[in-house]
Every structure is written in C-alpha cells, then in structure tokens.
C-alpha cells in the first residue's frame, strides 16, 4: 500500500538540491535543509517513494492531509544512556546550589542498575524510547555503562538491542568502586573478557561501537593512555569508535578521537585551537556531537558551536539522556539551547540533530526516494518553531 502525505506547508528534506529557492535570508544555514514548500511525500513499504511539490504529486492507495503542518526528518539521537535504574534528582539539586560535577555520581546509577531485574530495565527503556518518539525522535543510539561487570554490561546491551540496532559498548564509563585501587585490572577486563563477549557473534554482535569517558580531570574516568588502549582494542575487534571528550576541561579526548578516526567525539565543551583544527581536518570522518542539555543541567559553559561551524567542523546535536547530568530526552530542547546559547541558527541546529547526527551513526537521513520513511511532524508551519516555541510539545514522530 502506498500513502500520499499532503498538506505539508514546509518539508525539510536535508537535500539542498531539492530546495525550492525560498530560503530565509536571516538563517545562514537554511540552504542545508533543502526546504520544499507546499510539498507532498509518497511512502510505500516503509520507504520514501516520491518527494516534491503537492501540485505534481502522483496517485497513491491512501491519502493523508497534514493540515498545513511542517514535516522534518525524524531526529537522530546519537548519544544516550537509556539503560539505567534509580534516581539522582538530589544530585541535580546539589549542583544547582554549587556542587560541581566530577563523574562520581555514576556509581549511584551503577548500583541501582545492577540491582534491577531484566523486566524492570526493559520497562524503563521502553518508556524512555516512547517519550523520545513523542518528541520527534525516530532513531536512537543507546550505550551501556551502568553495569561495569561482564554480565551486567552484556545484559544492558541485550536490552538496548531490543529497541535499536545502534548500540555502544561503554564498559569504560568509569572505573567501578571495586577496582578503585587497580585501574589497570579494570582496563584489562574491558579490553579482554568484556570486549570478547560483546563481539563474540561477529556481524550480529551486541554492539556496533565502543566508547570511553576520556576525562583526566575526573578521578573516576579514564586518562589519555587508558582511553587509547580501550579504543584501539575496540577497533581491532571491529567496532566503530566514539569518545566522551573534553567535557570537564581541556584534555586529550578530541585529538585522540580525530587521530583514531572515531565517528564522533561528544561534549567538546573545552576546546583549544589545536582541538578545533583537528576536528576541521577530520571533517567527513569525525563529528563533534554537542550535548547542550548537559551544560544546562550542570551549570557548565556551553560549547561554542559557532566557532566550530565557522572552522568547517561537522557538528551534531544529541540529548545525552542519562540519570545524572541530563535527564532529558528532548531533542527540541537541545535545539532551543543550541540556538539560544551556542550561536547556531535554527536551520543549522535542525540539520545537526538529523543529518549530521545520522552521519555519526553511519546513516543517511534525507527525505528522498529509497530512504527510510522516518519522519516527524510539527504542529506549526515551519521548522523555525522548534526553537521559537521552546518547551512546547509541538513535534512528534509521524506514525505511518
């Protein structure tokens, strides 16, 4: 059965060649979006079959009028930690009164997650994914990292795999308390038995990527040498590379990610000129994924997205939904923060949360024939309303 979607006031295709030439001059990145106004889309078999002006739309088996709403590619949330139990709201309240974040609270989530049953974790993950779809997210990456034992990390990845193919092994999230006096032994566990078990099934392994919290300023995370060991072991095992880097201060994470060809280095809060130069040189390989919800939730300075974009860096946006530093699953919230606090235009922010975040997962997220029909609809006539109506639930994944 084919379905014709009409009544689309503005369609974002992420394909500049499809744009109708009516870009808003005030928005420097609007040409990125490939906007078609008064558009129509035909969907068949879960894929886009046709895109163009409504006046040229072909016939289809069914027809749905969206009533003058805007349609965008579904958000790609390329950095989340959804497999967790427990509550850290008291930690958030403490930060709001001046307690700095150093990564230590992760141990609270580890204890709660280890204690939860499989059924409890499945229900929590399913609820969070549903919450994301209700806000326009159609693709999500999920990391492990709140188990930190072999069995608990495998369990986390199995549960994540039930809801997404984009899973990331983050055994190197922090050093668990039981290894506090023998960090090397824990790195050996991550790069040996854990990694072997995660990748035991080859092409159908439990994870597609490996990640590490490279943050020498935290006593709980990993320094540059430890991070290199983890990433090189993951690469040798056939996993794509992702890095938590430069969140709490200047450090080696960004340059290490670029050197090793990581798909993404995430946070990028503290960057010097050499970091920016490395990211610009790695364009097309390594994406800088910014997570402004974290800065909002930790009272940290926001990354300078304008500096990165002007330097030619590929910039993505994601939620970093997690129990400690950003318990928000809202990409529209991240977009509003990026526009208000980080120097991005509305179009650049939308492109970052769809096309560029997809690229960091090895995906192509355009509204074009042959692409998956992963769409979201706004109760508004334009993508500009994503930042303009901050905090208002105007976008949702389009059920087809």
From the 3D coordinates, which CATH architecture of the largest domain would you assign? Alpha-Beta Barrel
Q: From the alpha carbons, calculate the radius of gyration and give it in angstroms.
A: 21 Å
How much strand content do the residues show?
Answer: 15-25%
Helix percentage = 25-40%
Continuous helix count: 13
How many domains comprise the coordinates? 2
Please tell me what the overall shape is.
Answer: globular
Structural write-up:
The chain is α/β, with parallel strands linked by helices and 400 residues long. It folds into two domains: 2-74 and 366-397, Urease, subunit C, domain 1; 75-359, Metal-dependent hydrolases (TIM Barrel, Alpha-Beta Barrel). The protein is 34% helix and 21% strand. The chain contains 13 helices and 15 strands. The chain has a seven-stranded parallel β-sheet with strand order 7-8-9-10-11-12-13. The longest helix has 16 residues, at 118-133. The model has no long low-confidence stretch (mean pLDDT 95).
């Amino acid at each position: 059965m084919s379905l014709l979607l009409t009544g689309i006031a503005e369609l974002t295709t992420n394909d500049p060649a499809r744009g109708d030439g009516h870009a808003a001059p005030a928005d420097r990145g609007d040409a990125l979006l490939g906007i078609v106004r008064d558009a129509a889309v035909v969907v068949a078999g879960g894929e886009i079959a046709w895109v163009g002006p409504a006046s040229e739309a072909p016939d289809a088996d069914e027809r749905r009028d969206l009533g003058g709403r805007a349609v965008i590619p579904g958000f790609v949330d390329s950095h989340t930690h959804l497999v967790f139990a427990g509550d850290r709201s008291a930690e958030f309240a403490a930060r709001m009164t001046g307690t700095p974040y150093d990564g230590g609270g992760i141990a609270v989530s580890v204890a709660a997650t280890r204690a939860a049953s499989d059924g409890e974790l499945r229900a929590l993950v399913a609820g969070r994914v549903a919450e994301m779809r209700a806000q326009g997210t159609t693709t999500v990456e999920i990391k492990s990292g709140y188990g930190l034992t072999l069995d608990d990390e495998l369990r986390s990845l199995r549960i994540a795999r039930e809801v997404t193919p984009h899973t990331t092994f983050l055994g190197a999230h922090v050093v668990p308390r039981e290894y506090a006096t023998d960090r090397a032994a824990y790195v050996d566990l991550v790069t040996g038995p854990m990694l072997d078990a995660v990748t035991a099934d080859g092409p159908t392994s439990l994870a597609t990527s490996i990640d590490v919290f490279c943050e020498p300023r935290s006593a709980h995370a990993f320094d540059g040498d430890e991070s290199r060991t983890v990433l090189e072991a993951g690469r040798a095992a056939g996993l794509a590379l992702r890095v938590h880097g430069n969140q709490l201060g200047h450090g080696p994470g960004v340059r290490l990610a670029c050197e090793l060809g990581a798909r993404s280095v995430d946070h990028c809060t503290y960057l010097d000129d050499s970091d920016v130069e490395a990211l610009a040189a790695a364009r097309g390989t390594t994406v800088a994924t910014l997570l402004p919800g974290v800065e909002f939730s930790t009272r940290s300075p926001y990354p300078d997205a304008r500096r990165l974009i002007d330097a030619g860096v590929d910039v993505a946006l994601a939620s970093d939904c997690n129990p400690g530093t950003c318990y928000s699953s809202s990409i529209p919230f991240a977009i509003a923060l990026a526009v208000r606090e980080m120097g991005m235009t509305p179009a650049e922010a939308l492109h970052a949360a769809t096309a560029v975040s997809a690229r960091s997962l090895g995906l192509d997220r355009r509204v074009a024939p042959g692409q998956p029909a992963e769409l979201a609809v706004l109760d508004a006539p334009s993508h500009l309303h994503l930042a303009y109506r901050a905090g208002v639930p105007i976008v949702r994944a389009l059920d087809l």
